[in-house]
């Protein structure tokens, strides 16, 4: 993932926020997973910044997800698809399992990237 453009990493941080927030609140367990990825991967610093900006602003997760997916629609990220999907699943599952709102966004992410 190191070779991803800054724009894609930034956008993925927004998608992560959308999945974490779509059930109403970003949970501590979800943050722990994100921080673990950031600690283990230098490329993830940009991801943390965009995640935290959206979190501070309280951005609507559904609107943000749709806007962010438009960026992914313009880029071929198949090489990194599994890594992105795994991280979304891990974050969503971190607090009591994946709820229906999270599952819907993850499924939409999967469908659009494979589209």
TrEMBL record:
Protein name: TerB family tellurite resistance protein
Species per Swiss-Prot/TrEMBL record: Reichenbachiella agarivorans
């Amino acid at each position: 993932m190191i070779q991803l453009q800054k724009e894609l990493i930034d956008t993925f941080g927004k998608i992560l926020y959308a999945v974490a927030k779509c059930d109403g609140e970003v949970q501590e367990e979800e943050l722990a997973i994100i921080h673990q990825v950031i600690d283990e991967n230098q490329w993830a610093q940009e991801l943390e910044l965009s995640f935290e900006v959206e979190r501070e602003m309280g951005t609507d997760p559904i609107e943000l997800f749709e806007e962010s997916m438009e960026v992914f629609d313009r880029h071929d990220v198949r090489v990194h698809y599994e890594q992105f999907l795994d991280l979304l699943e891990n974050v969503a599952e971190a607090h009591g399992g994946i709820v229906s709102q999270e599952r819907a966004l993850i499924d939409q992410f999967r469908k659009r990237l494979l589209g």
